[in-house]
């Protein structure tokens, strides 16, 4: 028997982090983002997480630094994975890119819409360059598909 501490066993905790303006989901542009609110999506994720034996911690912020802090926190909490919709920061934030790179926790990039089918400025993703993988274009289902992936890590 060894008394040397081993790496923490990943918990069944999955962080679901949402970036700017996603608090408005379900109120405008339903043709692009669907009718579900962020609370609706949280409910769907919690139902599926229960079946998978996972726990969800869902958050939203309009501030870039909060997302960076929460990525660090996910690692400190030994979370199993982070599901991240960084909103428009996806296309602008080297800080979020670097935060994803700096943690061992796998990050799954999600989008409700399909950025590649939209304006040119949405085609590049700093998040995607650092994330384990990306799921986009399926509305609220993108989050549920990401949870299925996280359950298999
Ligand atoms: O499709 C996605 O999930 C996006 O991350 C959503 C971002 C957009 O900047 C990304 O290119 C793709 C925008 C979120 C804005 O959310 C709204 C919600 C309701 C009404 C208006 C905007």
What is the topological layout?
Blueprint: E1 13-18, H1 30-33, H2 38-52, E2 55-60, H3 64-76, E3 81-85, H4 94-102, E4 107-111, H5 126-130, E5 133-136, H6 140-151
Parallel strand pairs: 1-2, 1-3, 3-4, 4-5
Helix pairs in contact: 2-6, 3-4
Ligand CA2 binds at residues 21-22, 24-25, 27-29, 33, 85, 87-88, 90, 111-113, 115, 122.
Enzyme class: lyase
GO biological process, one term: chorismate biosynthetic process
GO molecular function: 3-dehydroquinate dehydratase activity
Short summary:
This protein is of the alpha/beta class.
Description of the structure:
The chain starts with 12 loop residues before the first strand and ends with a helix. A 5-stranded parallel sheet has the order 2-1-3-4-5, with helices on both faces. With about 150 residues, it is α/β, with parallel strands linked by helices. The longest helix is centred in the N-terminal third of the chain and has 15 residues. It is built from 6 helices and 5 strands, in the order βααβαβαβαβα. Helix content is about 40%, strand content about 15%. It has a single domain, classed as Dehydroquinase, class II (Rossmann fold). Helix 2 packs parallel to helix 6 and helix 3 packs parallel to helix 4. The protein binds ligand CA2. Homododecamer. Pathway: Metabolic intermediate biosynthesis; chorismate biosynthesis; chorismate from D-erythrose 4-phosphate and phosphoenolpyruvate: step 3/7. GO terms for molecular function: 3-dehydroquinate dehydratase activity.
């Amino acid at each position: 028997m060894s008394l040397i501490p081993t790496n923490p066993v990943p918990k069944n905790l999955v962080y679901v982090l949402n970036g700017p303006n996603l608090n408005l989901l379900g109120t405008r542009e339903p043709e692009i983002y669907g009718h579900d609110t962020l609370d609706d999506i949280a409910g769907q994720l919690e139902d599926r997480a229960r079946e998978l034996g996972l726990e969800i911690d869902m958050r939203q912020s309009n501030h870039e630094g909060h997302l960076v802090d929460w990525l660090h926190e996910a690692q400190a909490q030994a979370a199993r994975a982070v599901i991240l919709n960084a909103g428009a920061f996806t296309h602008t934030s080297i800080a979020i890119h670097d935060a994803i790179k700096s943690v061992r926790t796998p990050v799954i990039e999600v989008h409700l819409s399909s950025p590649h089918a939209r304006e040119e400025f949405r085609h590049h993703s700093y998040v995607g360059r650092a994330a384990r993988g990306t799921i986009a274009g399926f509305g609220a289902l993108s989050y549920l598909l990401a949870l299925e992936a996280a359950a298999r890590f």
